[in-house]
Amino acid sequence: MTRILARATTADDLVGLLDVDHAGDAIAAPSWRIVPGQRVAVLVDTLPRRAEGDTEDQVPVRRLESARWGLVPAGSSGPDQGPPLAELPAEQLASRPELLQALVSRRAAVPVSGYYEHHETDDGLRTPYLVGAGEGTVLLAALYEWWRDPSRAADDPARWVLSCAVLTRPSTGTVEALAERMPVVLSPDVVEEWLDPTAEGSPDLLRAVAAQAEDVVEELAIDEVGPGIDQGAPDTAELARPV
Q1: Is 35 exposed, middle or buried (0-12, 13-18, 19+ CB in 10 A)?
Q2: Count of Cβ atoms closer than 10 Å to residue 126 Cβ
Q3: Core-most of 41, 60, 104, 242, by most CB within 10 Å?
Q4: Which pLDDT value is given to residue 172?
Q5: Taking the model in full, what pTM does it have?
Q6: Helix (H, G, I), strand (E, B), or coil: what is residue 60?
Q7: What is the three-state SS of 94-162?
Q8: For the segment 128-173, what is each residue's pLDDT rounded down to a tens digit?
């Protein structure tokens, strides 16, 4: 089951917190219930276009953009082809050629306050928990893609759809009691390397980033929350309030 995300931090605060150079338009407002197919804030480092004759080393630009949560591969027929590809098992990327290029050059991070997991008991009852950073922000490893809508004119700014998927790995530590898998949470030590557009992503980098998540997730709080997250309650901080 795909997780639900929560982000309490505003776009303006993320700009300062994450050293963003450029923030795109229409970054989604904070939400305590972000589901696949909705918009998420996504952090990417890109290289500016080189002017003709320019031989200077390029300095990456850190961007905060709005993306569809659910990867739309460039060669697909579009975002409505099937269920949103919101999560990708990190250990399977190397065997999926259609995703390998995104690992090589389109790595991203999704800033969140936390994510929800459900613990199911033997009698079938499901209890929701928030795995999060309290009042802080954590970054989830992600891949992004640009898909061009062939039905739109070349000069239509809406012709390009930015989308992303969060990477997951087998759960460890305290989270293992809640779910079999968990998002790959990035530590501050690996964020720069993961986002670096001058470095080619590789299976080795992916394995290293997935491995360090074991320690990072142990620093997060795990709090049982009320059933409102599953019952259509209003999208407020009450959804994440510990019970």
Answers
A1: middle
A2: 12
A3: 41
A4: 92
A5: 0.93
A6: coil
A7: HHCHHHHHHHHHCEEEEEECEEEEEEECCCCCEEEEEEECCCCCEEEEEEEEEEECCCCCCCCHHHEEE
A8: 999 999 889 999 999 999 998 888 888 887 788 999 999 999 999 9
Query: In 3-state terms, the chain is what percent helix, strand and coil (to 5)?
Result: 25, 35, 40
Point out which residues pair with 87 in neighbouring strands: 166
Name the residue with tokens 């980033």. 209
- Residue 238 — very low, low, confident or very high, per pLDDT cuts 50/70/90? very high
How crowded is residue 142: how many other Cβ atoms within 10 Å of its Cβ? 29
- The two structure tokens encoding residue 68: 């569809």
Residue linked to tokens 């998540």: 213
Domains of the chain, first to last: 4-46+60-240 (3.90.1680.10)
